[in-house]
Amino acid sequence: MSDKKTDSRWRFRPEEEKHDIYSLHRQALREPPEPQEGLEPPPWWLWVISVLLIFWAGFYLGRYGGVFGPYVHVLEEGRRTERETALVPKEPETTVSGAEVYARVCAACHQPNGQGVPGVFPPLAGSEWVLKDPETPILIVLHGLQGPIEVKGTVYNNVMPEWGSKLSNEEIAAVLTYVRNSWGNQTAEITPDMVEKVRKETQERKTHWTQEELLKLKK
Questions:
Q1: Any bridge partners for residue 148, and if so which?
Q2: Structure confidence by residue, pLDDT tens digits, 111-120
Q3: Closest residue by Cα to residue 140 from 115, 105, 113
Q4: 36 pLDDT exceeds 90?
Q5: In whole angstroms, what is the distance from residue 210 CA to residue 69 CA?
Q6: Which residues does residue 145 pair with via DSSP β-bridges, in sequence order?
Q7: What is the Cα–Cα distance from 195 to 173, expressed in whole angstroms?
Q8: CA distances (Å), origin 41, targets 31, 35, 44, 51, 191
Q9: What are phi and psi for residue 56, nearest 5 degrees?
Q10: Domains in the chain, please, with CATH?
Q11: Which long-range contacts (CB under 8 A, 24 or more apart) does 6-10 make?
């Protein structure tokens, strides 16, 4: 049997080769690990954006989401109806000016100061036909007046045209109220309803009033 020290099989055994195992491990540790798809951590800025979006969504729902319940739709329907109603244009409220009607219709004869024209057109300031009762001036304006009439002790003989077909109840009420409370006159207001009542009661009349007829109506 040959000696081990001279045997070539033992002379070249790998176990007898000298290797630094720690050096081999250090080299292995220096190599980066193999990347694994799907396990990469998200960047920090993505976390910040996500948190901000969550806070914003919570604020938005709290501010504009209302409350959860069926009556929310009822309330919203009511608000929508109010908004739609507000958008519908309203007809302008018109207030008839008695002074404007007087200037347009009456002032040419009875004068802007209500004193009339001596011997031609009777005055309205202090006139008993204007102040005594509300029905008489309404009758005169609606159907007109003709023939002699005594006003404040003076007789006037002329014709006043009818204005019932040209003026509305509101205009007649406004102008008579203006006359009955101007130039020292002071008495009760005449309303459109009062004019309408007299208009209906005398709708069949087609001629002017006379002083005699008006006096008979008051007996």
A1: 157
A2: 999 999 999 9
A3: 105
A4: no
A5: 76
A6: 160, 209
A7: 7
A8: 20, 12, 9, 16, 87
A9: -65, -40
A10: 98-217 (1.10.760.10)
A11: none
Nearest to 123 by CA among 172, 184, 213: 184
Contact 122, 95 (CB under 8 A): no
Count of CB atoms situated within 10 Å of the CB of 38: 4
Look up residue 136 and give its amino acid.
Answer: T
Confidence of residue 124 (pLDDT cuts 50, 70, 90): very high
Nearest to 75 by CA among 165, 83, 35, 154: 83
Can you give the length of the chain in residues?
219
Read off the amino acid at residue 211: Q
Q: Residue 217 contacts by C-beta under 8 Å, 6 or more apart in sequence? A: 135, 136, 139
Q: What is the arithmetic mean of pLDDT over 52-77?
A: 66
Average the pLDDT over 13-18 and give the result. Answer: 52
